[in-house]
Each structure stands twice: as structure tokens, then as C-alpha cells.
Write a structure and sequence with these properties.
Blueprint (H helix, E strand, L loop, with lengths): L9 H8 L5 H8 L11 H8 L4 H14 L2 H13 L1 H13 L1 H9 L12 H4 L3 H7 L6 H20 L5 H26 L1 H4 L2 E7 L1 H4 L9 E9 L5 H20 L10 E2 L12 E2 L1 H10 L3 H7 L3 E5 L1 H16 L7 H9 L22 H15 L11 H10 L5 H25 L10 H10 L6 H33 L10 H10 L5 H12 L4 H18 L4 H15 L5 H7 L1 H11 L4 H8 L18 H14 L3 H28 L10 H32 L5 E7 L1 H4 L9 E9 L5 H19 L10 E2 L12 E3 H10 L3 H6 L4 E5 L1 H15 L7 H17 L18 H15 L11 H10 L5 H25 L10 H11 L6 H22 L5
Helix pairs in contact: 1-2, 2-4, 4-6, 4-7, 5-6, 6-10, 9-11, 10-11, 11-14, 15-17, 19-20, 19-23, 20-21, 21-23, 22-23, 23-24, 23-25, 23-26, 24-25, 25-27, 26-27, 26-28, 26-29, 27-29, 28-29, 29-32, 30-32, 31-32, 31-33, 32-33, 33-35, 36-38, 40-41, 41-42, 42-43, 42-44
């Protein structure tokens, strides 16, 4: 071929127009002698251009033609240009599968398998595939015959003769024929074993479900029985040898490659159990030991090879157990675990490419369908199908899934499975990852009929269908429940009340009848409000079911909706602000405290939709708001009512942020730094309590004295309050200090100070809808026997003359919180020499602290409490860690400025930095302190009242576990971890506090 230099040939231009990406290379291939007789035939170029990858198809064609002998070559070329069915099928396969192109080059006469175009060839079944494999007498010949049959399946697939479901069924039928052929080869090899046993091969997974991929493990279970006169043990051993041989025939790699792995790990006890069992042994295991996922797997059980009667007996025997699985005691927690998407084990760089396991992937559809089958199949035999798409149609037909949802899910599943098929077909490799290379994406898009801009069209379609799956995955469970109670579409098949209750019970709702009443109240009617609720509820119900107490979540949502239903912004917020609805669901179903706070003032739900709403407010900001409110109020009681309302709102903000940070959301993972969560809660609660005290102080003063109290007055935080480590249920430990103003007598000043304290305590404990703030002044000099308020000089005189070592230790947490700042600073300056004594503590003082600690351990532990699980006084708990850190502060604080802090974790870090404690020991103590603090916070969140022990109620214990990051069913692991972490901390305390060697 000659062209004018610098100008492209007309062939080059035509090749570009027909979709070739390397026209120069294609032009050279067309000029080869092998294609000289057909290169100018226009139908060839047109047919090549219609393939998924014209360049790949042309290269494969050249290799195939060159591999023919002279006579056969011309027959192939003549047939190629004259017979359109062959041309489309052969070039379609060559353009979609490099691996099948390699097979044709190695076995050049196998192209004849694509010539016939008869009715039986269009829709072959097991019998036709068995005939195609009939000549296979060894593993190599079986592989060749298998690939020859696979050629026909791939040809029908890429040419559109069969759809996705038919292709998957043909692949399953070919697998069935292949297993039978492999078993026959194994029997021929060891006839003595074959004579001793009946062996049935039961397909599971996609093969059992008649929906196999091009390249997939073929899951099987083996069942054996002795032939008359054979000992059972000998028969099982013989069957095991046969089964293992059959598996190797399929799985081993030979010169002809491999077929696919045969996987028997779905058998009882998995890979740890015997490969072959008798039917009786199988049933004994399933009746006593099997888990829910094993019954889910048995949905697809189908006898495929070996003794057909034994296979049928097996399926008949296990089928009733499958449909009784939903009645098992552990079904609900098992379902909760299985429903949660598990993408943690997928490398982060692959999650967005996962067709099967990623969000919106194939597993979401398959699991949803199988779960609904298990729940409703016990009373409806029409759902007993192992094929996903058939089961989905049956679910829609019975009203268990909305018809529109089922249609969308069917379309999305077919598209995603088609993508998976074409990705695997290219090199016949088992993969579920969407490729990243543009050339691979182009081939994939073109194979699915996208020709204008295949890469962009493919990505858009893939994301659209994955989004549909993600969106419908939860609604699939819950939308029919709403249809059952709302009854908006007369004549539409819908769930019965019994079926709806059954589904709710299976998904973790303890009182399905009440749940249905809530759904009816929320979603019935034709109002705009009801319509929005019907949109929101399917997703919300899923989030509630993901918690430890779905019933409480739904009840709380109904109460909030009843309270705010007439406000225009509430439902709009949940519908339009992406995070608000999920945040609300998490908060309402995590325990009692947060919903109680919210229901006292439901408008606080707006916090959940504001991106900045969950961040804690600063103390300055809170004090400014509180003092301004007090200034506007009429009277002290109304002023403090507003102040306590601010505190309740901020408590809700803090609890919501804590719950959402601990649970995580679909878009944001849980906070991995548990110490940061604890610090945020402690600081936030401390700041809002300090602001509350400032507001109560201002209100008490204004009521009686106007703007100026006769004495300067300050509130000093102590204990966890001073340490910025308050929990949700903590009292505010304080000291009160005052100093008479110039010209005011001591008696008048003292009377004014005591009046203010009494009034503050009264105002903060008045019965209202808002939680009270209890003030505890028992750490004052002389304890409950001493005066509530002292002057600065009185404190100085007491500490100089009477102070005990425990009082100096308690002052380590003292920090100014409210009132006169100069007076507060004066108090801190007064006590610094006491808490950080020059040259540290003497040995007598150290012994006294150790004696007090030992006495507290023996006397203050509640009777009957488990010392290994008491978060405050128990082994390795808060008291152990805090006393150890405080001893370091009192011994070394005079020399190490970093130790002069009221905060436990800060002081521990400073001690580590100063090499006063090894880093490993410091980490052990920090881990234990953070965990014990989180348990206390969790107990308050879940029960609505404080506690130092894990709850005894099973559901409350599960909720505490969920807050701490443990999945349902892992409460035992939580307790074991707590004991292990605190046991290690106690060992450090024994050495670092008590001086044990």
C-alpha cells in the first residue's frame, strides 16, 4: 500500500472511524499474508468495529488464522466473510476476551464450536454441556473441552443472544456438567473407592443459585452414605478421597491452565471440619451448632453431581431448618451483625472500585434479598428460590418489596453483574475490581454498548446504579412496612400486619406492634408532612435497627415529630440536611439521656443539622450568653430557669457530639482517639457548669444586692470539676471563698456570702424540666462540720495550722471557676505551696497517702460489687490511676512545671516527658483511665442516671458496648478487654504508687 508522504491512508482513516485506538498497528496486521484475501472486505472492518476492543479482536483473529493449516485457513476466512452469525460471535469473543483468544490460538479448530446456530445451540442446558464434555478423560482434556463450551456461552453473551440471567444460568449449568465429568474421572481413577460409597455433590453459592460468574469459586458441600455392606467410616474415607480428587481435577493448574477452584469451606465447621459427612452428621451439626449465616448459605443448596437421590435427600432434610432460622434465639443479633456493611477489610484504595463488597455493591442486593427470604419464607414457599433475581421478583409479587423498588434494584443488579462478567471475561481471572486503566475502561464500556464516550458513560452508569443500590438497600426492608400501615394505593399487594410485625421483630424491634402503631401515626394520610415522613422513615428505621434499642429510637422520633410536626423547618431539616436525619437517629437510639434532654426542648434538634452545631461552645461564649440572659430576667428564679435551659441545651449538644463521634456515621467513621472524646466531654461539661454557676451567682446577687455584693466572692472548682474531667452525671465539687469589701464588717460579709451560697444551691435545684446542678462543698476544711464559706485569711490560717495531707492532695484539682477573678487567683497562690511542697513530700506523708488509699479500697467498695469491673474504686480504675498521678505531682511538682495542672492526663504526660515514669507504664495508665471514664459516660448516656458499674440489663449492656465500639454479640469481649486493660494498670499502680518490686 502506498500513500503520499505525510498523508494518512484511507484505511487508516477508516480504522479510526471503526473504533481502533492504534490504526497504524491495525493497518500492518491487515497487510499480513494471513488476511490478504479478506482485508478489503468491508464487512470485516465493520464487524471488527462493532466489538468491545477492535484492536484486540484483530490481533486475536490474526493469531487464530495463522494457527490454521493451509486448507483450514481458507475455510475459516470464507466462513468469516459469508456467515454473519459466526463473524459476530467469533469477533465478539476475540474483542472481549484475551484469554479465549489465547485458547483459540492453542486449539485453532475450536472455532467450529461457534459455527452452529440452531435452537439447541442458542439455549443449551446441562445435557448439551455434558455432551460437549463427553470426550474428556483427564484433567487436561477436561480443561480444553470446558473452554470450548465456554466459547459458546461468551459468544451468546457478547452478541446479546442471552441476557445476564441466562448467561449466569448457562455458566452454572456448565459448572454442573464439569463437576459431573470431574467426578467421573475421579471414579475411574479409583474404582475401589467408588464401589464403597454413595457420594453427592451439593452446589452452594452462585453455582447453587444458578447464577454463576465467568470466574468464581464453585462452592460445594459433600454428602456420603455407605453402600450396603460397607462400614460407615470406610465409606466416608473413600468418599473423602473421591471428593478431594474431584476438587484437584478442577482446581489444579496444568499446561491447559485451571478451570476454577472448588471451595468446600461452607461445610459444617468450615475448613476445620471433615470434608465429607453423612447426612445424619450434617443434620446433627445444623440442628445444634449452625449459625444464622450458615442457614443463609443453605438457601442456595442444589444437588448437582454424584448420587442424585442422596443429594435430593440432603436438600429435603435441611430445607425446613433454613426456613426455621428466623425463629432461633440468636437470629436478631446475627442479623444486626450481618446487615452492617463490612468494608474494613478492603484496602482503602480499592473500596471505590469494589463491585461486590463496596457500598452499593452486589453483596448489598444479595444480602437484602436473602434476609427477606429468611424472614418471610417460613410462611411463604413462593420465596424459596436460590436465584437472586427470581427471589426478588417473588418478593415483589408477594408485597414484601415495593414493585418500583424491585424493578430499580433488578436493573441495577443486572448492570453491576454485567460489568463483573465482562471484567472477568477479559482474562478469565477472578476479580470484582473495576479497572483503572483507560483502555480497560474503554473496552468495558464498549462491551456494554457504550460507544460515543465509553469511559465517561460507563462511570456515570456505574455510579448511578451503585447509588440506587445504596439508596434502596435500607428502604427495601422498611418501605413495605409503611405501605402496610399507610394503605395509600388501593389494590396494591402489601405486607400483612403479621408479616410486617415479623419483619420488624427479625430486625431487632422488641415490640413490633407498638412500632407499627408509631409508623401508622407518623406516615398515614395524604398531607405533605406524612409524605415527607414516608420518605424519611425507611432510612431512619434502618439506623434505629442498627442500634441496641430500635424501639426507643422510633418512640423518641415519634415524640420529637409530634412536638415539632407543625413547625415548617423540622421535616425540611431532616429531608434536606444530609447529616441531620442520621445524627438524630443515632442520638435517639443510643440510650435515655440524650433523648430526655432533647424532648424537654425539641427545637434543639436544629443543632444536628448545623455543620458547626456539634462543636462545644467556649466558656467565654457561654458566660456571655448566660449573664446577658440573667440581666434581662425578672427575678432570680426566672433568670436561673433560663440559665438551666442553656445548660440543658449544651448538655444535649455535648451528648449528641459524643454519641455521633463514638458511633460514627455512614460518611464519617467513629473517632479513633478515645482520649480526645473523653477530653472533649470533660472540658465541655466543665465549661457549661462553670458558666451555669456564674449565672446563678449573678442572679442571686442581683436579687438581694443589685450589682455589688458586700463581699468579694469566688467559686473554686475541685475534684473532677477543677480537673476539667466531669462526666454527664457528676456533681460540681466546689469551695467558696470570700473577702469583705472595704468598709464592710466581717459579720455582714460572712452573712452575705452564706446567703449567696444558699440561694445558688436552691436556684440550681428547683424542680423544673431541666436537670439540676448539684453543688457539693464537702471537700472544704473540716468537711461537713466546717463553715460553707470562708474568707481567704481563714483558709490561710486553717491550712497553715491544721491542714492534713489528704487536703493538700485534694487541692491538686483546685481551679477558679466563677466570681471575683483576683480573689480566685489569690486563693490559688495561697494553696500552691501546699499542693506542690518544696522539695516534695516527706516519707511520712507518702506513707500516709498510701495508707489512706488502701483504707479507701477496703472500706468504700460497695458490697457485692465486682472489684474487677468497678470503674472508680476497682482494680486499675479511676482512683488507682489518679492517686498514682497525684503522688507524682506532690513529690515532683515543685521542680517540674508541667506537673502543675489539675488535669490527670496532662499531668501523666508531663511525668512521662520528665522521665518520672516509663512511657509504657504511662500509656497503660492512660488507656485504663480513658476506658473507665468512657464506661461511666456510657452508663449515664444509656441509663440516664450515673453509675460506676456496667449495667446488669442485657440491652443496656449491649448499648454500652456499642458506644465503646463493640458489635452486638461481643459484650463478653468488652468485659474481657476491660479486665485486661485495668489489670495491667493495677500492676503499674502496685509498682509506681505502692512501691512494690
Amino acid at each position: 500500500m502506498t500513500t503520499v508522504p505525510g498523508r494518512r491512508s484511507s484505511t487508516f482513516t477508516r480504522l479510526l472511524r471503526h473504533g481502533f485506538t492504534d490504526p497504524s498497528a491495525a493497518e500492518q496486521l491487515l497487510d499480513l499474508d494471513a488476511l490478504i484475501s479478506v482485508r478489503a472486505d468491508p464487512v470485516l472492518l465493520e464487524a471488527l468495529g462493532a466489538t468491545a476492543d477492535p484492536d484486540l479482536a484483530l490481533r486475536g483473529l490474526v493469531r487464530l488464522v495463522e494457527a490454521q493449516d493451509e486448507d483450514e485457513r481458507q475455510v475459516l476466512l470464507d466462513t468469516l466473510v459469508t456467515a454473519k452469525p459466526l463473524r459476530d460471535r467469533l469477533l465478539g469473543v476475540l474483542g472481549a476476551s484475551e484469554a479465549l483468544g489465547d485458547h483459540l490460538a492453542r486449539h485453532p479448530r475450536d472455532w467450529h464450536a461457534l459455527v452452529t446456530y440452531e435452537a439447541a445451540d442458542l439455549h443449551p442446558g446441562i445435557a448439551e454441556f455434558e455432551q460437549g464434555l463427553a470426550d474428556a478423560v483427564d484433567p487436561d482434556s477436561l480443561r480444553v473441552s470446558y473452554r470450548r463450551c465456554l466459547l459458546g456461552i461468551a459468544a451468546r453473551d457478547v452478541c446479546g443472544t442471552t441476557d445476564l440471567a441466562e448467561t449466569a444460568a448457562e455458566l452454572a449449568d456448565l459448572a454442573t456438567a464439569t463437576l459431573r465429568a470431574a467426578l467421573a474421572i475421579a471414579r475411574t481413577a479409583v474404582p475401589a473407592d467408588a464401589a464403597q460409597c454413595r457420594l453427592a455433590v451439593v452446589a452452594m453459592g452462585k453455582c447453587g443459585g444458578h447464577e454463576l460468574n465467568y470466574v468464581s469459586d464453585v462452592d460445594v458441600i459433600f454428602v456420603a452414605e455407605p453402600i450396603d455392606g460397607t462400614e460407615e467410616s470406610a465409606a466416608v474415607q473413600a468418599a473423602t478421597r473421591l471428593a478431594a480428587h474431584m476438587m484437584r481435577i478442577c482446581s489444579d493448574t496444568t499446561v491447559e491452565g485451571t478451570i476454577w477452584p472448588v471451595d468446600a469451606n461452607l461445610r459444617p465447621e468450615g475448613r476445620n471440619g471433615p470434608l465429607v459427612r453423612t447426612l445424619t452428621s450434617h443434620l446433627a451439626y445444623y440442628q445444634r451448632w449452625a449459625k444464622t449465616w450458615e442457614f443463609q448459605a443453605l438457601l442456595k443448596a442444589r444437588p448437582v453431581a454424584g448420587d442424585p437421590e442422596l443429594g435430593a435427600e440432603y436438600v429435603e432434610a435441611v430445607s425446613p431448618l433454613v426456613w426455621q432460622a428466623a425463629d432461633r434465639d440468636n437470629f436478631v443479633p446475627d442479623v444486626q451483625k450481618m446487615r452492617r456493611r463490612v468494608v474494613d477489610n478492603i484496602p482503602a484504595d480499592r473500596v471505590h472500585r469494589e463491585l461486590k463488597l463496596g457500598p452499593g455493591g452486589l453483596r448489598d442486593v444479595e444480602f437484602a434479598v436473602q434476609l427477606l427470604q429468611l424472614v418471610h419464607g417460613r410462611s411463604d414457599s413462593t420465596l424459596h428460590s436460590g436465584t437472586t433475581l427470581e427471589a426478588l421478583r417473588a418478593l415483589a409479587g408477594g408485597g414484601y418489596v415495593g414493585r418500583a423498588d424491585a424493578a430499580q434494584l433488578d436493573e441495577a443488579y443486572r448492570f453491576l453483574r454485567s460489568m463483573e462478567h465482562r471484567i472477568q471475561l477479559y482474562r478469565l481471572r477472578r476479580t470484582h475490581l473495576v479497572p483503572e486503566d483507560p483502555a480497560d475502561l474503554r473496552r468495558l464500556g464498549r462491551s456494554l454498548g457504550m460507544r460515543t464516550d465509553p469511559v465517561n458513560e460507563l462511570n456515570k452508569a456505574w455510579k448511578r446504579h451503585a447509588s440506587v443500590v445504596r439508596r434502596l438497600h435500607e428502604k427495601l426492608f422498611y418501605r413495605p412496612l409503611l405501605d402496610a400501615v399507610a394503605q395509600l394505593a388501593p389494590g396494591e399487594t402489601r405486607l400483612s400486619a403479621k408479616a410486617a410485625g415479623t419483619r420488624l421483630e427479625a430486625l431487632g424491634y422488641a415490640d413490633p406492634a407498638a412500632a407499627l402503631r408509631h409508623l401508622e401515626a407518623l406516615s398515614s394520610g395524604v398531607s405533605r408532612k406524612a409524605a415527607i415522613q414516608r420518605t424519611l422513615l425507611p432510612v431512619l428505621l434502618g439506623w434505629f435497627a442498627d442500634s441496641a434499642d430500635p424501639d426507643a429510637g422510633l418512640l423518641g422520633f415519634r415524640k420529637v415529630s409530634d412536638a415539632l410536626g407543625k413547625t415548617p423547618w423540622y421535616l425540611r431539616l431532616l429531608r434536606d440536611e444530609g447529616a441531620a436525619a442520621e445524627n438524630l437517629a443515632r442520638v435517639l437510639s443510643a440510650g435515655r439521656l440524650a433523648p430526655d434532654l432533647l424532648l424537654r426542648a425539641p427545637e434543639a434538634v436544629a443543632i444536628l443539622g448545623d455543620p458547626e452545631g456539634l462543636k462545644p461552645r467556649t466558656r467565654e461564649h457561654l458566660e456571655q450568653e448566660v449573664l446577658a440572659a440573667v440581666g434581662r430576667a425578672d427575678g432570680a428564679e426566672s433568670a436561673v430557669a433560663v440559665v438551666r435551659g442553656v445548660r440543658r441545651r449544651e448538655l444535649f449538644r455535648t451528648t449528641a457530639a459524643d454519641i455521633i463521634g463514638s458511633y460514627g456515621t455512614e460518611e464519617t467513621p467513629a473517632e479513633p482517639d478515645h482520649g480526645a472524646l473523653v477530653d472533649r466531654v470533660g472540658s465541655a461539661v466543665t465549661d457549661l457548669n462553670a458558666a451555669t454557676l456564674a449565672g446563678a451567682l449573678r442572679a442571686a446577687v442581683r436579687e438581694r444586692w443589685g450589682d455589688t455584693l458586700p463581699t468579694r466572692f469566688a467559686v473554686i472548682g475541685m475534684g473532677r470539676f477543677g480537673g476539667h474531667e466531669l462526666g454527664y452525671g457528676s456533681d460540681a465539687d466546689v469551695l467558696f471563698v470570700h473577702a469583705p469589701r472595704e468598709g464592710v464588717g466581717d459579720e455582714e460579709a460572712s452573712r452575705a456570702a452564706n446567703t449567696v451560697v444558699t440561694e445558688m444551691r436552691r436556684l440550681l435545684q428547683l424542680p423544673t424540666a431541666d436537670p439540676p446542678l448539684l453543688i457539693d462543698a464537702d471537700l472544704r476544711p473540716e468537711g461537713k462540720s466546717g463553715p460553707l464559706v470562708r474568707t481567704l485569711k481563714s483558709y490561710e490560717a486553717y491550712y497553715r495550722r491544721w491542714s492534713l495531707v489528704w487536703e493538700s492532695q485534694a487541692l491538686l484539682r483546685a481551679e477558679m471557676m466563677a466570681g471575683d477573678e483576683a480573689l480566685g487567683r489569690g486563693f490559688i497562690e495561697l494553696i500552691d505551696p501546699l499542693r506542690y511542697p518544696m522539695e516534695g513530700l516527706g516519707e511520712d506523708a507518702v506513707r500516709e497517702i498510701r495508707r489512706l488509699k488502701a483504707r479507701m479500697e477496703s472500706e468504700r467498695m460497695p458490697r457485692g460489687a465486682d472489684p474487677t469491673l468497678h470503674t472508680k474504686l476497682g482494680r486499675g480504675g479511676l482512683s488507682d490511676v489518679e492517686w498514682t498521678v497525684q503522688l507524682l505531682q506532690m513529690r515532683h511538682g515543685w521542680a517540674e512545671p508541667g506537673l502543675r495542672t489539675t488535669r490527670t492526663r496532662e499531668a501523666l504526660a508531663a511525668a512521662c516527658a520528665a522521665e518520672l515514669i516509663p512511657a509504657e507504664d504511662a500509656q497503660v495508665l492512660d488507656d485504663a483511665w480513658v476506658l473507665a471514664t468512657r464506661v461511666r459516660n456510657a452508663v449515664m448516656l444509656v441509663r440516664g442516671r450515673p453509675g460506676d458499674m456496667f449495667p446488669s440489663d442485657a440491652r443496656e449492656m449491649t448499648a454500652v458496648g456499642r458506644y465503646l465500639g463493640y458489635e452486638p454479640g461481643h459484650v463478653g469481649d468488652m468485659l474481657d478487654d476491660y479486665r485486661r486493660i485495668t489489670r495491667r494498670a493495677r500492676a503499674v499502680v502496685e509498682e509506681r504508687f505502692y512501691g512494690a518490686q
